[in-house]
Amino acid sequence: MADAALLMEQPYGQFGAMNPTGHAAIYLDRICAQSPTELRMCAPDEDGVVISRYHRVGGYDWIAIPIVPYLYSVERVEDIPSEATPALEAQLRDDYRRQYLLNIAPNTTAAEAAGEPPPGDWTQLVGASYDRKIYGFQIETTREQDERLVALLNDRRNIAGFNLLYRNCADFSRNVLNMYYPHAVRRNFLVDLGITTPKQVARSLTRYAHRNPGLEFTTFVIPQVPGTIPRSHPVYGVVESMMKSKKYVVPLAVLSPHVTAGMAIAYFTDGRFKIPKNAERVLVPGEPAEKPSAPVLVPAAE
Length: 302
What we know:
By secondary structure, the protein is an alpha+beta fold.
């Protein structure tokens, strides 16, 4: 038995404060990366891959990264640091980029060739757990379904076309899950104004699993790595973020009380979704969060 898991990732930083919908990705435990842009079925001792849609990363629509590097920028679970600093996070990411991702995030200046990491959104590809807490919603798949997904994604043109409103990371996750279970995940035109959000994908997949109790469905949480990196923020939907922010809801209530009332009704009737309290804490899916402490790695001196 294998699984596909939606990774609903908390927002972080200044952009995350302005846009609290977070990030969505798909973890597939029977599918691996032949390269960051080509999929294959895993060998027995491999852990699977994370795929997602990105903005301005190598000109591609989607990119595939093995699960452990995706979360921690290292290749082995035993090398995951027990805590992290911004300097360590940057060093581990750039070390992985230089070994595996130069075709996607190349050195373009002499300073970068000498050891300075390039700017850009490539940093979203690895080390996600240093910046975010991540929630997983995992549903069973068959080998035939996995093989069909590999063939579909490998055969399609992988050309960037990101749009925050209608072709974002959550849309990609919605489409992948619907390849497994058609019509399982839908947009919500009331609580998200038609924009696909990570929280709506999680809500929709959970409801689909509850309507189909014969399918194995589990949840897990991957904690943000302890350390001095700022903590991530809660995930909200579109209307939910407005309802929970005074800087939005108060002016809107003054200018258009009827619209505000309608948004409140939509949120309280169909917009609330709570993460299950019994979600298992893991380092990676299938690996409990409690493990012998790894050494705290110290970044090399400049």
